[in-house]
Fold:
Amino acid sequence: MPPLVSSGVGIPWVTASCTPLRTPIMAASAGELPTSGYTWAGRTRERASTLRMRLAEKDGWPRPPFRSCACYWLDPSPPSFPPPPSHGSPGALALALLLPGLALQRSELLHREHLRVRTAERKAPRPRAKMSELRQRLGREPDGAQEPEEKESESENKLDGETASDSESKSEFGGAPPAPTSDDTPEVLNRALSNLSSRWKNWWVRGILTLAMIAFFFIIIYLGPMVLMMIVMCVQIKCFQEIITIGYNVYRSYELPWFRTLSWYFLLCVNYFFYGETVTDYFFTLVQREEPLRILSKYHRFISFALYLTGFCMFVLSLVKKHYRLQFYMFGWTHVTLLIVVTQSHLIIHNLFEGMIWFIVPISCVICNDIMAYMFGFFFGRTPLIKLSPKKTWEGFIGGFFATVLFGLLLSYLMSGYRCFTCPVEFNNDSNSFTVDCEPSELFQLQEYNIPLVIQSVIRWKTVRMYPFQIHSIALSTFASLIGPFGGFFASGFKRAFKIKDFANTIPGHGGIMDRFDCQYLMATFVNVYIASFIRGPNPSKLIQQLLALRPDQQVHIFNTLKAHLVDKGMLASSEDA
Amino acid sequence: MAGLRRRGAGDKDVVLGEKCGDLDLRNDSDIPAVPPSTDSTPEILKKALSGLSSRWKNWWIRGILTLAMISLFFLIIYLGSFMLMLLVLSIQVKCFHEIITIGYRVYHSYELPWFRTLSWYFLLCVNYFFYGETVADYFAMFVQRREQLQFLIRYHRFISFTLYLTGFCMFVLSLVKRHYRLQFYMFAWTHVTLLITVTQSHLVIQNLFEGMIWFLVPISSVICNDITAYIFGFFFGRTPLIKLSPKKTWEGFIGGFFSTVAFGFIFAYLLAQYQYFVCPVEYNSETNRFVTECAPSELFQIQNYSVPPFLQDVLGRETVNMYPFQMHSIALSTFASLIGPFGGFFASGFKRAFKIKDFADTIPGHGGIMDRFDCQYLMATFVHVYITSFIRGPNPSKLLQQLLVLQPEQQLNVYKTLKSHLTEKGILQPPLRG
Structure:
């Protein structure tokens, strides 16, 4: 039996999609398949499904059939990606049962197999029928642009559809009966909701999980900044893991030497670098006290760079002759993921240190926008918003915008009264814990504002007492509802591009952690830039630290300039001696 | 592309998709992934060298171009720091262009709407961000005078972020139904390229501002390592170094290491004597030009070092006069010869992965600009990290600028802390009583 080399079981139906002209596809398994000059021009899909099944049976599900990388780009409407392999393999069993004894030896056998499969497919239940329709259509009309588009939009509708079970069956491998959805819903919920119809059941599952997550969020807030930091860190690691797993699936790089190690090593390096910078800023006194910490922080950049270089050199040394491109792709994938996930989680932590309100209000605005837009769309939705996400509507978008702005105003009003939310988080050296205790800044003191005449007629007040922070919250909510959704569209496009329904199956009914946090990332960066630009200046303690590291003549120069400046401003008596 | 399709439609069951797959269980010599390289050697050279055999001809072309590039380099150095900055900028843009073109070819994304525009737009955004940060630091005086620039500087991050966001939203809106994956790939490709080329070119410029010697010595060390490793490999090469680059040998590697360290040492000695190279580049707002004039720091003043005993017999001296900078140059040269080549291996692996011989055909005999600069990038980052960790502290003018932005109470606070610190150190006279 020609060995289906683990590193290369091609999915011709995928590679077929690269070639709208249907030039012969090289079987990924070109080495394994007997090269009898058998070309597959015109038989792309059938060949694809055959090989796919062979592979699955030979390799054992849940090995995803993908092998190569950029081969999937031009996709009329290939079947969607099988679910990630980390979630059980009922499909594998089904496949193995359904397609026993596929002889893989010779091309004639292959051919017979292919015929047999095609007949089986014609008899397959509905989801499979879609694929055969596609094949027939392709057979009739090689470049029928219309119908594939229709089909694809249908399939996309399906993907976005309410019912998890439907879309998951669609995403299954062809030839298999709809594999039972890998249903992570706990048994309790299943039983409680067993008598409802499938659609409502899904809605309830989502609702319950939403409430559970929100309750969890409140608990964490109650527990304090340290726990929040740890949660952000865990979420970051989980998101990284989800995206990297998708990359592994797409590129079949499980078996590449070193690669998993290297990805996690890079994650560690970048986290070390960022945490080092944060720690040095905020825990300045603590760091100065401990000798090893002081050295680590003084040469922090150099150490981080050396760590990163080590990883880089290991990568170069680990390049294996036949897998160069794959390895480079994974390298690029890892770095882009790090850029997105890790940098922005650290920006979240910076926001957190600024004051918990800067962490809570943006996140709640994004969540509120999600929920409100969904509600408005549910009740009033009519005009589709963007082709990428067919379920989103303009009514939902605009309704969500107004509702979010209102919600932001209310929430910030509620929270601005409490010191524990508005004060910057500081590390108390004596008690070795985080404290949030301070004089509320101007931003969080009630002030009188004159209502513009336009609204005076509506509200019939002349002035209103508000916190200045509420004005900022309007800006934050506006961003969350107008630009935040682009992060969601980006993630939707990403999922479509790689033919996955969800990033993972971590949260029942919702998908992976990344699904919940895709809009948050843009928001975190925006809040950080907003704070740095409009709210606070540089961090004074960090400045002092840098000042003390300068050379004496530079220090004197700065001292004199500062003195002149302060005297100008009248803060210092000019008679004060140097 | 048509040629590729024709080839693909041939009897070999290879396809467009194949060349982007690495499932090579066979030799990858079947398909050249790119059209045969166009020979851009100027006519004049060809005529002059027409009499020589092919191998020597290639060698001569390379040699002549090497000399041409080195002379161009010297010329630019003579012209000053501003020209150097412009040179770095143009090299960065060309490298970006080369890598993006490879991405286009690999993914056949010429026909995608918007994508070329978006790639160049992102390049512009990131450059704007970085130049804004640099300009704000070094041209503080220049900026203070003009109102519009003040506004731009103060809200610089916000403006850069807005520009980037616009590009991001345009990308999301430009996603076309059947080309999602391709577009995402190109998006990621663009970002990784930006990360590599643009960030590091700005680190090069920051090194330059530290003093031209910090720019010249690392770059020359890398070039010297390339050349001497090649020469040593040519004459003594026997044991292959790494499978990625079969032409490199251990003899070349080690020989190159020693000669680069020696070269760096001597070159640093030569350059450290001139203020032009040693002083940080500053912008003189009156004359509106860059000046490099200063009292040389300790690093560039000759000091007496005692030679370690085991070297005393060799050198026959007990002490030697050296610049402290030469010690640093040893570290820089060591990095250039030991770790720098990894950048070259990375680029070789990249070229193998995507089955290209050279990044582009810009320089006859040498390939693209990226081919010449692949080792430089790691070096630039290393020098920058080295400088910030071991040589200088933070940038005083930047600090001053940040100080002036603080709240008045915070400024007072900082003033008092600084004052007490300086008084303690005895740099400031204690306040007179009475």
Observations:
- Residues 324-354 of chain A form the longest helix (31 residues).
- The CA atoms of residues 67 and 538 of chain A lie 49 Å apart.
- Strands of chain A lie at 384-386, 389-393, 426-428, 433-435, 447-450, 463-466.
- The longest strand of chain A covers residues 389-393.
